[in-house]
Amino acid sequence: MHVIINVVIKMNKELSKLIELRKNKGYSVKKMADLLNISKKFYWQIEKGQRNLSYSMATKISMVLNMKPDKIFYEDFSN
Fold first, then answer.
1. What is the distance in angstroms between the CA of the first residue and the CA of the last residue of the chain?
2. pLDDT profile of the chain (79 residues), mean per 10
3. What letter would DSSP give residue 65?
4. Mind giving me the DSSP string for 13-56?
5. For 45, how many CA atoms within 13 A lie in the half-sphere containing its CB?
6. Which residue in 75, 79, 73, 77 sits closest to 21, CA to CA?
7. Is the pTM above the cut of 0.70?
């Protein structure tokens, strides 16, 4: 149970980081969704942790933000 909670906390931290990076770029949820060719609702659900994030989508998001996926989503898991 403790391991599952730690993973959830780390995922919430990564999702908050995603929101922060999007806002730092000056992008709205709608703009990100348009750049990713997905619906605004779908993207919003990713940011809120209501959708599972595939590696493919993580890669697309990282390309829009000009970062490596590991720097956005996976950095804390390797520490």
1. 20
2. 41 73 95 97 90 87 92 62
3. T
4. HHHHHHHHHHHHTT--HHHHHHHHTS-HHHHHHHHTT-S---HH
5. 10
6. 73
7. yes
